[in-house]
Specification:
The complex is a heterodimer of chains A (117) and B (374). Chain A is of the alpha+beta class and 117 residues long. In chain A, 26% of the residues lie in helices and 35% in strands. Chain A has helices at residues 22-28, 74-78, 82-85, 99-104, 108-116; strands spanning 2-4, 9-12, 17-20, 31-35, 42-43, 48-54, 58-62, 67-72, 92-96. In chain A, the strands form 2 sheets. Chain A has a 6-stranded antiparallel sheet. Chain A has a 3-stranded antiparallel sheet with strand order 4-6-7. In chain A, strand 6 and strand 7 (58-62) form a beta hairpin. Chain B has 374 residues and is α+β, with helices and mostly antiparallel strands. In chain B, the strands form 4 sheets. Chain B has a 6-stranded mixed sheet. Chain B has 9 helices and 20 strands. In chain B, strand 17 (310-321) and strand 18 (326-334) form a beta hairpin. The longest helix of chain B is centred in the middle third of the chain and has 12 residues, at 121-132. The chains are: A alpha+beta (117), B alpha+beta (374).
Amino acid sequence: MKKFAKTHEWINTENGEVGITENAIEQLGDIVFLELPEAGKEVTKDSPIAVVESVKAASDIYSPVSGKILEKNEDLENAPEGLNEQPTSWLFKIEPAQVAELEDLLDEEQYLKEIEN
Amino acid sequence: MLENEIKSSPIEEIHSLNDAKFVNFAGWSMPIQFRDGIINEHISTRTSCGLFDISHMGQILIDGDESRLLLEKITPTDIGKIQTGKVKYSFLLNNEGGIIDDLMITNEGNCFYLVVNASRINEDLEEINKASKSFSKINIKHLQQNGMIALQGPKAKDVVSNFFKEIDDSFFFMSFKKITLNGDEVRVSRVGYTGEDGFEISSTKKTILELTKYFLDDESVTLCGLGARDTLRLEAGLPLYGNELHENMTPIEADLAFAISPSRIKDGNFRGANKILNEIENGSQFVRVGLLPEGRRPVRKGTPIFNNDEKIGEISSGGYGPTIKSPIAMGIIKSEFNKPNNKLTAKLGENSIPMTITSLPFVEHRYFKKGNKQ
């Protein structure tokens, strides 16, 4: 199941994959740069840990939960336009430190309601 | 019209039909991009033809016996040398030689036609009106009801001449023609803001809407927004008011000395001449340069530029160049560091991005000039 942060990240609660929402990608437009966190890095919830830049603008990506980075999507980092082609792609995998943080995130319906406002 | 009312383009209905994303730009609601995105629009312009809505640009007509004198008072251009049917790039200067605006001046024969930045129309009108008080019989008319489009790219000439038979191979870069269409005046200039051959066309809202529909039926034409307009002008090394140009910046600092007429330099009788002539002679303290950042990360406007540990300037415009497929930027730096291939650093938070000073433009201009092969 996917859970969502208000800052437009999603996390797959089964395998720890993290990405940014299709809505966020649509707003960014053509993506030209990605900087993803290295495996092994310890991160805290809501801290900026990655950068995405489109032709239009730069944007930080925040960790939806605290935990340890297991892997980053190097193919995507090397060819960031792939995120426009496959907007559901994961960016990095994280091992959440506390299950409770996952539960605090929004479900899809709540997220969609959030971006409507 | 209320001062704070958001203005909309005469061809807004076309934008909406093409899934435009709108932005507020200088009080106008304008499309930043359409459904296929900025890179697609950019590449289509470089390889074929882009159609841009530039109805937000300010358009001013000045007529009267002394209008040449008025324009020579506020610009460093030899207005008398602009032949009828020709366009000249110039600046509105303040008394310190700072740039109030950059603009295009056309000699229409019986009047002068000015195209200015949307973001500066109020300042421009105020300055022109103020300066006109020392002259007699001058009429200043703001063409608020006109719409304007640009067609840019290697196929722009075929597209435009297909409709306007008046546009032929003798109509060179920086030329102008006034054409009558269905009783409406249409102003066609062979100019642009992309580095490509192209045209800017102004007329009534109704005629601009009709022309836009006609041109968009041509399969070589792609509708483009302000996003692509910005990436194209950046690759072409062209300055943007508010980024490279402002009231404390002279044309010399902006590296635009070419636009000051030699006869005006010789006479030294234009606004800010003392300062500007001194800068021509001895160099200016700051100067606009082209910068190629290493790697893939774009550097944006406002990013500080360092030489070792010394801050020597700021990025004035920066982003991604879709034609050259890498980040590109312009910056305003202390002139002593302006040496070809000099290595500087952009500081982005904890990151340092090495950059090399490079000559502008990033992508060669392809204007249609006399002597060019067609």
